[in-house]
Amino acid sequence: MSKWVSAWGTATSIAERREGNYAKNLTLRYAFKCTLDGSKIRVRFSNICGNDDVRITKAFAAVYKGNTEIDTEKMNEITFNGLTEGIIPAGGEVTSDEIEFRCVKGADIAVSMYFEGMTELMSTVYTEGPCQDNYFADGDLAASAEFPLENRMPTGYTYFLNTVDVLADDAAKSIILFGDSITAQSWADRLNLKFIENNDNIAGIRRGVSGTRVLGQYDCLQYAHYGLSGENRFVRECNCAGADTVVIFHGINDIIHPDGVNPFRPMSNFPSLDDMVEGFRYYIREARKMGLKVVMTTILPIEGWRTYEEWREGLRVKVNEWIRTSDEIDGYIDFDKAVCDPSNPKALKAEYDSGDHLHPSGDGAQQLAEACYRLMIKMR
User: Is pTM, for the whole model, over 0.85?
Assistant: First the structure.
């Protein structure tokens, strides 16, 4: 084992604002499926949207047994410059020391963190899928074998934990899955299950944030949780050890958000094709600087979505045509054709529609994972 490779990751964005965004005496336990074999780990924690420094009182990595339970015989303390406490600076990130920890592809790992003092819970992301199992509890339980039933709650939100790298063999690599709420849902996990099942030595690092756009962001209290713009996310989220490819699945929110009614969603924000292409070209330029191959995906059909209009569909079709014919990228995945209704290509096929006519169902997410998998293996 001689090469650091990101084996798991999520995006970090801004929390939905509530009347209170602080907690104390809190333990978080986040479990995920490891995609690579490795002999050591290092963990990155992010507080990019925080106003205060965050103090991690203690943190541990352990083999996860399910239902909040960890194997305390296979647990190592996470340290920071040799100290058991770590500070995540406001607006910044911190990476732990290298830690001896045996990772096994397909096994579940949990990172547990205890926050003794008052902690601002502002840097987070919502995700879902079959490869995660997240909980929080009151009290100092980071090193406990399990959380008591009466003192635990499941959560879809991941605070602070951003990336886990493993010391893997030279053939291992990661690919970055950059996108919005559809990527925050389950297709990324389903892709990683394919990689594990076929022993491909590849990790898909999910960087999906609900509501994000290529070209803008909401700098207002009501919609700040829709996350940062592509320009304010892309470079940081592509910081993945061992990555050689970024898969960009982004753009639908630029098309569907402006409505001319909500004061924060004026029609002046509705982009042209040229605007969208310039946004994509920013991604391409920055990816090239990082030595990454660029794969783009077509945008899914949206007929039936609450802001659907024919002129929105017209822009989606034009964007997809640019993606399919561009000579500026290394390849594309036709997610549109993978899940659209052949008899009505403006809409998702019924069995691939979650019901809101925008986000795919579990079966639809599986189709996206299969389509991405085929191209990733072809490009190896």
Answer: yes
321: tokens are 């045509």
Tens of pLDDT, residue by residue over 35-85, are 999 999 999 999 999 999 999 999 999 999 999 999 999 999 999 999 999
Residue 19: its pLDDT value, please? 87
Residues 334-350: b if buried by 16+ CB within 10 A, e if exposed: ebbebbbbeeeeebbbe
Q: Is the pLDDT of residue 1 over 70?
A: no
Beta-ladder partners of 186: none
Give pLDDT tens digits for 191-245: 999 999 999 999 999 999 999 999 999 999 999 999 999 999 999 999 999 999 9
Any idea which residue has 């190896």 for tokens?
A: 380
How many residues make up the chain in this entry? 380
Quote the percentage of the chain above a pLDDT of 70.
Answer: 100
Which of 333, 324, 336, 332 lies closest to 360 in space, CA to CA?
336
Q: Is the dihedral of CA 251, 255, 261, 266 positive or negative?
A: positive
Tokens representing residue 194 in the block: 């394919």
Residue 286 clears pLDDT 90, i.e. is over it: yes
Give the list of residues 6+ apart from residue 367 with CB closer than 8 angstroms, or none. 338, 339, 352, 360
- Residue 368's Cβ-count burial label (10 Å; 0-12, 13-18, 19+) is buried
